[in-house]
Specification:
CATH topology of the largest domain: Spore Coat Polysaccharide Biosynthesis Protein SpsA, Chain A
Shape: globular
Strand order of the largest sheet: 3-2-1-4-6-5-7
Radius of gyration: 22 Å
Order of helices and strands: HHEHEHEHEHEHEHHEHHHHH
Number of strands: 7
Strand content: 5-15%
Distance between the termini: 60 Å
Structural class: alpha/beta
CATH architecture of the largest domain: Alpha-Beta Complex
Largest sheet: 7 strands, mixed
Number of helices: 14
CATH class of the largest domain: Alpha Beta
Helix content: 40-55%
Number of domains: 2
């Protein structure tokens, strides 16, 4: 067999996992659409003291987030807000200090950014009184009933975490924000419900509610990781505690709106997911609390990161074979259909649930325009991880304003 024949066979065989993944997305989109499951919120039977922690670094929208948290429909004597401020921007610091006189708000500052977000959250725990800890990134705007709905899940003593869903108030700002929003929405509308059914949902880092004593039992946040949320989630479920994903528990936030921010965010998430699993792989695989199916599903979800490399490989090799006239360029259309068909169905399903079904064509176009760039960026992140090279910590730029209604 000559080299070109070998490459052609490799190219064709590479579509086996792509077809399987596409059908996986098709199956989830169709099955969830036909049998929607809504978890009804109940009034909490108790009102524990809650600490809302908001880590912030030079984020101009922080004032809006603090204001929204102060307006939550929960007894005012039953919660506090701890702002873990690592900012160096005088304007952001000034904005935060406007709340310094509010008895419900504590502002905590450090002399360094040791451990980044995880370090800030560990430090904030020293000043937090709550038996339930809520984490909001500094661009998150929770609805008024967020705490009541979240607390209702903790009737079950095995529940350690309730993970909420993200919504985006700048979803349709530009092609970048559409792509960024849909990459999260597709995951949370399709993969998260599947993880919840299997019993392996993890943390997404914000709009997350954690039982403090369990978090402390498993060791708290691990600094210096790019995905400290996923790593903590792996420790929690490995120790036999439950993480519940509530798709109706949602808070608005911002999607990246510049290509630079999107690329950096995606690389951090890809690198961080692999790093977190590597850090806790032994605990996961040896856990007596996880079934073989749960362990296999966790490995499968982590392996989804390598789809970026596969996409890049298929497109590059397909173009090469087309240029050499081994395969017709027309085959690229069915390549796109195979690679993206299930995902396109998924983002259409997510947009319909978000009330934006007419954005589906834009979502497909944004995916086609930016998918190759993101695949290349995430392949770079994977290669850095595989070769043991650290990836810099990137901060995603945010707008300073939000819509009047979210």
């Amino acid at each position: 067999m000559d080299l070109l024949a070998l490459l052609t066979n490799v190219y064709l065989l590479s579509f086996i996992p792509s077809i399987a993944l596409s059908f996986f997305y098709y199956f989830l989109a169709v099955s969830l659409a036909l049998s929607p499951v809504k978890k009804e919120a109940k009034e909490p039977e108790y009102t524990p003291f809650v600490t809302i922690q908001i880590p912030v670094y030079n984020d101009e929208i922080i004032g809006k987030s603090i204001k929204a948290c102060l307006e939550l429909d929960y007894p005012k004597d039953k919660y506090e807000i701890v702002v873990a401020d690592d900012s160096t921007d005088p304007e952001v610091i000034k904005q935060i200090d406007q709340y310094a006189g509010n008895p419900m708000v504590k502002i905590v500052r450090r002399n360094n950014r040791e451990g980044f977000k995880a370090g800030a959250l560990n430090n904030a725990m020293k000043y937090s009184k709550g038996e339930i800890i809520v984490i909001f990134d500094s661009d998150f705007i929770p609805p008024k009933d967020f705490l009541k709905r979240a607390i209702s899940h903790f009737k079950d003593p095995k529940v350690a975490v309730v993970q909420g869903r993200w919504r985006f108030f700048n979803l349709d700002e530009n092609m970048v924000s559409i792509f960024a929003s849909l990459s999260v929405l597709a995951y949370q509308y399709l993969v998260y419900p599947a993880k919840d059914m299997v019993g392996t949902p993890l943390l997404s880092g914000s709009a997350v509610v954690i039982r403090r004593d369990i978090m402390e039992k498993v060791g708290g946040w691990t600094p210096h990781l790019k995905a400290e949320d996923m790593e903590l989630g792996l420790r929690i479920i490995s120790n036999g505690y439950k993480i519940v994903f509530d798709p109706e528990l949602a808070a608005h936030c911002q999607a990246p709106f510049s290509l630079s921010s999107l690329v950096k965010q995606q690389m951090r998430w890809t690198y961080g997911g692999l790093e977190a699993f590597k850090t806790r792989a032994r605990e996961v695989l040896n856990s007596k609390h996880l079934s073989p199916i749960q362990k296999a599903f966790l490995i499968f979800v982590v392996s989804l990161n390598f789809n970026y490399m596969l996409i890049l490989f298929q497109l590059m090799l397909g173009l090469t074979l087309g240029i050499l006239e081994i395969l017709p360029f027309g085959q690229m259309w069915w390549v796109v259909a195979i690679l993206g068909g299930g995902y396109f169905a998924g983002i259409s399903y997510a947009l319909a649930n978000e009330g934006h079904p007419k954005l589906a064509p834009k979502g497909v176009l944004a995916t086609l325009l930016l998918g190759v760039i993101i695949s290349a960026a995430n392949t770079y992140a994977i290669l850095r991880f595989a070769t043991g090279k650290e990836l810099p910590w990137y901060v995603t730029k945010k707008h300073s304003s939000v819509p009047a209604k979210v």
